[in-house]
Amino acid sequence: MESFDEALNIRPHGRSVIEIQDITKRYVMGEEIVHALRGVSLRIHRNEYIAVMGPSGSGKSTLMNMLGCLDTPTSGHYQFNGKNVAEMDDNELAEIRNREIGFVFQTFNLLPRSTSLRNVELPLIYAGINPETREEMAARALQKVGLADRMNHKPNELSGGQRQRVAIARALVNNPSFILADEPTGNLDSKTGGEIMGLMETLYQQGHTIILVTHEADIARHARRTVHLRDGLIESDDYLPLMETEFVISSP
Amino acid sequence: MRRFIYEISESWKIAVAQMGSNKMRSTLTALGVIIGIVAVTLMGTAISGISIGFDKSMAIFGDDVLYVGQWPWKRVDDWWNYRDRKKIKTEYAEPINRMIAATPRSNLTVAVPTSSVYRSVKYGDGEVNNVLVRGTVSDYVITSTFDFKEGRFFNELESRGGANVCVVGYDVANALFPSASPLDKSVLINGQPFKVVGVISRQGTFLGLFSLDSIVVMPLPAFQKYFTAKSEADILVKVTDKTKLAEAKDELIGIMRRVRGLSPEKKDDFSINEQQALKSTLDPIKNSIAIAGLFITGLSLFVGAIGIMNITFVSVKERTKEIGTRKALGARRRTILLQFLIESTALCLLGGFIGLALAFLMCFLIGVGFPSFPVHFSTDLVVVSMVVSVLTGLIAGFAPAWTASRLDPVAALRYE
Ligand SMILES: Nc1ncnc2c1ncn2[C@@H]1O[C@H](COP(=O)(O)OP(=O)(O)OP(=O)(O)O)[C@@H](O)[C@H]1O
Ligand SMILES: [Mg+2]
User: Which CATH superfamily is domain A15-250 in?
Assistant: First the structure.
């Protein structure tokens, strides 16, 4: 696999930081057993841009939760930065979620009564960063997503696109390696969705690894690698040819 | 550690914001705690008031005085064995004092006979009924704990000679001489004039049952001449060193047995009593009143705590998605647990503060309206009720906070 990657030389290099093997996830609902994932293997390097696609119910969100250390697989092996996730306790998982992963949700999930600034500060509180630095970092993150003038607004005083940008600022404020976005544009119109994708592109350019779930081919086109899921299995895992990648990068 | 502090301060802010945005709900929930704290605090003040009154009442007996009497100061099941005992007589004082004087390094100082009746006391048009009239000797003042508002106790000369002099209690003086000083005036008891030489300062009531200020004390010979020829009495014996009360008691028992002429095989036919004995019989009663009172009022606090628990469960339920989000952002179980514990505690503390303020106000009003009612508002009580509030919050909030901390992040995020 490694040699294959290197031979083609069209994929991002670097240490593989996420490696899952034969991951399955079963849900037992009374009599019925739902197989959300049936044996998924993936290797994700630093600074990749991956779109996860597939029909509804194919297990995309389940996979994302697994990658984000929010959920534990029924079987299979998950290594994060060379460490076995199954052996981590709740505190270690919380630590990884806090420092290594930034989540962006379809429904934004902002705290309704807190200002943008306070929302963005949240991961920093859990990271134990002092109040002054916290505020500074949060303000900078908001600036990055173009909301410098909306810091003291509460979510209900913001548009959907702005809310999602606050959520993105929150996801990147701790400078995580991974940004996991489950249908980040699902609740937005296509223009606003385009803006959010522009933001994702920038984050990718800055070295973050982006994994995003989407239904729309338009959105998926931004990614350099597309994983198709069907019935809990990987149907295809395609990399964009180098030239096209460069074309995307150079296009505005 | 630093992170822990940030988490706590963050949780406080959330808790305060939460209360602020749910004012009505928070107030109603806190009401349970408010009522609980008011009830517990008022009961506490009443108990400590009663307890202080009790100790004050006990103090008038003096902790260095032994009382020789027919009956013991405790409940007896075989009362018939005591009923037929010979009476204690005033005359015993003399041989007791002689034996004390004859004993080298005696543990006893002096024996004082007292004998009492109830009579009316008059002055001019004024009259006070049911006054305790007590005949005794001048040494009585040594065995007593009272102070003088004015004047003095009768002296040895007056005591021996049975002069028509007396010392009056605060209530008697106030009733008969509302504006003037009673000193050197003569009050009439049984038609006999007695010149007032002293006024005892206010003593209060004994366990709130009867006034200790409705009293007249006079020399024993005069008392026996005008009121009763019978010499039934209590003998008060002051001890030298109150830390050696047991030895003193043994010595007094020996003396009394000699006075009574008891042969060694005979049982004592008198009782030696002391403040401590009375206390130890009354203390359990006092304590069970306190426990019952606190238990009953504690129930209201318990109901308040259930309200807090309930509202915290509601809060956890409502904010399930928020809990999921926080976990996704790196909150640990501990963080979530702490957040809801602090929320319930903050609510209880709010209730505690308001309750305490109300209780304080009520105590103040009771104190103004009914000065004799024993309420005592102490700083201890403030500390105790704050501690109780915090504990209530922690205990009531624990189950919901624990549930919240254990929520599966994915399930919480999916929750609508
Ligand atoms: N908590 C759960 N209990 C039972 N079944 C579940 C649970 N979570 C997911 N599933 C099932 O697992 C399967 C995969 O769900 P998942 O949410 O991963 O799909 P998805 O690809 O994200 O779909 P969509 O595009 O609609 O979001 C579905 O059949 C779903 O019903
Ligand atoms: Mg999904």
Answer: P-loop containing nucleotide triphosphate hydrolases (3.40.50.300)
Q: How far is B18 from chain A (nearest CA, A)?
A: 9
Element at B196 (helix H, strand E):
strand B192-200
Residue B86 is predicted with a pLDDT of 84
Query: End of a domain among B273, B293, B311?
Result: B273
| ipTM of the complex as predicted | 0.89
CB neighbour list of residue A227: distance below 8 Å, 6 or more residues apart: A42, A50, A51, A52, A53, A234, A236, A237
DSSP state at residue B232: B
Which pLDDT tens digit goes with each residue over B154-170?
999 998 888 899 999 99
pLDDT of residue A13: 44
Ligand 2 ion local residues (Cβ < 5 A):
A 61
Strand partners, B127: B122
Q: Are residues B78 and B17 in the same domain?
A: no
SS3 of B315, please?
helix
Contact A109 B331 (CB under 8 A): no
Q: Kindly report each contact of residues B15-20 with a partner whose C-beta sits within 8 Å and lies 24 or more positions away, as own/partner.
A: B15/B339, B15/B342, B15/B343, B15/B345, B15/B346, B15/B347, B16/B346, B17/A113, B17/A114, B18/B315, B18/B343, B19/B346, B19/B347, B19/B350
CB pair distance less than 8 Å for A113 and B21:
yes
Q: How many CB atoms lie within 10 A of CB A229?
A: 24
Please say which residue of B235, B251, B273 terminates a domain: B273
Question: Taking a C-beta distance cutoff of 8 angstroms, is the pair B308, A99 a contact?
Answer: no
| B8 and B150 inside one domain | no
d(CA A143, CA A150): 9
Residues B252 and B290 occupy one common structural domain: no
Q: Is B147 exposed, middle or buried (0-12, 13-18, 19+ CB in 10 A)?
A: exposed
Residues B332 and B189 in one domain: no
Task: Give the residue on A whose Cα is nearest the Cα of B10.
Answer: A125
Q: Which residue has the higher pLDDT, B92 or B2?
A: B92
Q: How far is CA A124 from CA A95, A107, A136, B14, B321, in A?
A: 11, 21, 11, 16, 20
To the nearest whole angstrom, how far is the Cα of B396 from the nearest Cα of chain A?
Answer: 25
Q: Is A29 in the pocket of ligand 1 (CB under 6 A)?
A: yes
Number of structural domains found in chain B = 2
Query: Three-state DSSP class for B166?
Result: strand
Residues 6+ apart with CB under 8 A from B258: B95, B99
pLDDT value at A243 more than 50: no
Read off the pLDDT of residues A171-224 as tens digits, 9 standing for 90 and up. Answer: 999 999 999 999 999 888 989 999 999 999 999 999 999 999 998 888 888 899
pTM of the model: 0.75
Q: Which residue of A has its CA nearest to B2?
A: A128
Helix axes A131-144 and A116-126, enclosed angle (nearest 10): 120
Element (H, E) at A2: helix A2-8
Q: Are residues B11 and B79 in the same domain?
A: no
Return the domain boundaries, chain A: 15-250
